[in-house]
Amino acid sequence: MAAAEGVSLNHIARESTDVKRLSKFYQEMFGFEEVETPDFGELKIIWLRLPSSSLLIHLIQHSNGELAPSSSIPVKDPSHIRLGHHLCFSISNLHSFHNTLKDKGIETFETTNGNIKRVFFYDPDGNELEVFASIEDSS
């Protein structure tokens, strides 16, 4: 039996050089909604919630506007996304979503494994992202 009880994933934190810009990206691309955020003093933080779940993303901006050394460094080629360091969203409209990324000038890398199609790309701060869908669902 696990030591922790009633466990569920609460949030994922992402560092940003511009939390408003990154918030807009996650709202426009995935439908996240801004929710009430506690006052963290001088630290700028925006909390976003995915309406279809209880998952939150905490966007954190450092006072100097620079990402901490441990942050992702943007790589221009999404085929080099580190497999252990990305967020993945299941979506039902992979084809049209992929076209939206292209229309916005976002570099992507697409792959198919069995009946799963995956598209890898970066958010505006270089955080690694993946979207995937079953081939039957990838309209």
Task: Please explain how this structure is put together.
The structure is a single chain. This protein is α/β, with parallel strands linked by helices and 139 residues long. It has two domains: 11-61, 2,3-Dihydroxybiphenyl 1,2-Dioxygenase, domain 1, CATH 3.10.180; 78-137, 2,3-Dihydroxybiphenyl 1,2-Dioxygenase, domain 1, CATH 3.10.180. Helix content is 16%, strand content 32%. The protein contains two helices and eight strands. A hairpin with a 6-residue loop joins β3 (44-49) and β4. The radius of gyration is 16 Å and the shape is globular. The relative contact order is 0.19. The model is unreliable at 68-75 (pLDDT under 50).
Q: Strand pairing plus helix content: what structural class?
A: alpha/beta
- Adjacency order of strands in the biggest sheet: 1-4-3-2
Residues in β-strands, percent: 25-35%
Oligomer: single chain
Distance between the termini: 42 Å
Percentage of residues assigned to helices: 10-25%
How many E-type strands? 8
Helices and strands, in order, run as EHEEEEHEEE
For the report, how would you describe the main beta sheet? 4 strands, mixed
DSSP summary: helix tally = 2
Q: Tell me the domain tally.
A: 2
Shape: globular
CATH architecture of the largest domain: Roll
The pLDDT mean sits at 83
CATH topology of the largest domain: 2,3-Dihydroxybiphenyl 1,2-Dioxygenase, domain 1
CATH homologous superfamily (4th level) name of the largest domain: 2,3-Dihydroxybiphenyl 1,2-Dioxygenase, domain 1
Protein name: Lactoylglutathione lyase/glyoxalase I family protein
Domain VOC: 8-134
InterPro entries: Glyas_Bleomycin-R_OHBP_Dase, Glyas_Fos-R_dOase_dom, VOC_core
EC number: 5.1.99.1
